[in-house]
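Because discrete structure vocabularies remain unfamiliar, it helps to consider an illustrative case, giving the amino acid sequence and backbone structure tokens:
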Amino acid sequence: MSCPAPEFDVMIRRIARLQESRRRWMVAFVLACACALFFLVGAGLLAFGQRFGEHERLLMEQQRFQAQLRANQAQTQQFALEKQQL
């Protein structure tokens, strides 16, 4: 058996290095995509939470105004009754 030529050995090592480099770049790319997706989902959830919080705040404010309106209407009716009795 004869030993392979040194050029082939060098080529095989070079190909192995290129494959390892490509593998590292692929891992880096996948990690970068995962991080970007994580941050996009986080930003989306944060925006949704802020909008949901704003909606809840507006709903509570509307309920407070409605309660105040009912109280004002009752007070107006009370004043009208008192005025009629006078």
